Amino acid sequence: MESTDLDHVPVGDLVCPEPDERPDIWPWTATRDEDGVLRLGGVAATDLARDHATPIFVMDRADLRGRATVWATTMAEEFWEGYGMAGGDAFYAGKAFLCADVVRTVTEAGMGVDTASLGELTLALRAGAAPSKVGLHGNNKLDAEIELALSAGNGQGIERIFVDSLPEVAQIEGIAAAKGVVARVMIRIKTGVHAGGNSYISTGHEDQKFGVGAFDGQLDQVVDAIKASPHLELRGLHSHIGSQIQGSAGFVEAAGIVMDVLAKVSAQVGAPLREIDLGGGVGVAHTGADPVPTSPAEVIREVARVIRDKADALGIPVPRVSVEPGRSVVGPTTVTLYRVGAVKDAILGEDLKRRRYVAVDGGMADNIRPALYGARYTATLANRVSEAPLVRSRVVGKHCESGDVVVWDVDLPCDVTAGDLLVVPVTGAYGYSMASNYNMLTKPGVVAVEDGRTQWIVRPQTVEDLLALDAGLDAGPSGRG
Ligand code: LLP
After folding, report:
1. Last residue of a domain, one of 325, 352, 368
2. Please, which of 30, 303, 333, 390 could form a disulfide with 64 given CB 3.0 to 4.6 Å?
3. Looking at ligand 1, which residue's alpha carbon is closest to its atom 18?
């Protein structure tokens, strides 16, 4: 493939770092063999592509286990009773990516599971998560979700249901009363702190659908309604300030506000509330241009300090503290392997600047984040390394939309060609879980790699799977039956 007229493209942050250069954007076990092949969990990327169709999500199970262990032990340690605290727990936010194998891996590592729909709740319970370590979220919960939450574990019910609005108090009370059980609830409050991306701001984010205003009278009403509900037990307060947050400042600010509100609500209830949940949101890096993320231990140590100080200052007991990380648990554990197809250049204007388009066999259906949020990823060859000059490239999918971008900008060797394998790191969170069947593409499978072995943890969809839902085919090709 010609390359000389593309050699002007600058080399810099847009080159995908190798696993040894930026381990934080690669699965723990990622290495590059001497022949240039990427190896994950002891399995060569070329073998993965040969034995399983591309595109494919590849999860490093040992990495997931490690991250889940770090979160569980960090919470247990920082909030250990022996340090004068009241205990700490980490619930994995299943919305980031959920399947039975993930439930087992994270729960064996000591995490609970946070769910937000009938599907997530059913899967978590069926995969063996202890009801006492499961939570249920949702701003518009279905009766069926609440019913399952209250009947899980032969009627013992799940650990906590997060009340999101005043009408929901009556909804949960009604279902609990009909079942003759007591629902353990926490109230999701809006603290005014909203964080995300690289900055956090402390006002102006009350205008969103989640939670109960902490300072506008709504919370008082919800607390009074719960007090008047014989089948509800108010455990504490919850706050989630956003996602993909860098640093700890937003979490620290929110923790301080939640403690203030906890003191106020405890006074209103007439007894100390003993739990708070600070949600998820710890960010990850996706490219070499992103800063190395703050570790769970760094964030949680600061949060623990503010909680202890606030409890002292307010004269209330230190509460039990939980968090709900999703992305930081699963994001970097997984990569997507694609097969390169059509490669072409777009000529951008009279100075004959070009942009190389490298098309792969997936796209916005397996990763909607670049199209939806403008999210930045990076990519590199997985089947070989190349010394060829770099060319500014855009990795695109095979969908019928020009916004079907997998990687907006990456400097790839100019000899990348059809048949090569491209790997996109850090696709474990909100990749598969937000995947669609746009253009009737089948969803890729997810394979776990560990100690040189591979195992499907989610099988790839087939076209027959898709067609099986089409009631119009039941009658056969002749038409309406
Ligand atoms: N807890 C609650 C109540 C949440 O709403 C969320 C995420 C989490 C925990 C987990 O947050 P994490 O640790 O994963 O940041 N689709 C978006 C992300 C939406 C997050 C929604 N809630 C994305 O792809 O960036």
Report:
1. 325
2. 333
3. 243
Domain that holds residue 52: 6-60+332-467
pLDDT above 80 (res 204): no
User: Pick the catalytic residue: 16, 99, 400, 414?
Assistant: 400
Going by CA atoms, what residue is nearest to atom 22 of ligand 1? 243
CATH code for position 442: 2.40.37.10
Query: Between residues 347 and 309, which one has the greater pLDDT?
Result: 309
| CATH at residue 133 | 3.20.20.10
Any domain includes 78: no
Domain shared by 53 and 105, yes or no: no
Q: How confident is the model at residue 203 (pLDDT cuts 50, 70, 90)?
A: very low
Distance, CA 50 to ligand 1 centroid (Å)? 34
Same domain, 20 and 112: no
Q: How many domains does the structure of the chain reveal?
A: 2
- Asked whether residue 110 falls in the same domain as residue 209, the answer is yes
Query: Ligand 1 pocket check: which of 327, 367, 368 to mutate, most ligand atoms within 8 Å of Cβ?
Result: 327
Does 95 lie in the same domain as 149? yes
Percentage of the residues of the chain whose pLDDT score is greater than 70: 94
Residue 1 pLDDT greater than 70, yes or no:
no
Residue ending a domain, among 325, 345, 364, is 325
Is residue 479 a part of any domain in this protein? no
Ligand 1 atom closest to 430 (CA): 24
CB of 279 within 6 A of ligand 1: the answer is: yes
- Whether residue 238 has its Cβ less than 6 Å from ligand 1: no
Q: Considering the domain boundaries, does residue 321 fall inside one? A: yes
Annotated active-site residue 414? The verdict is no
Of 276, 328, 259, the C-alpha closest to 89 is 276
Residue 343 within a domain: yes
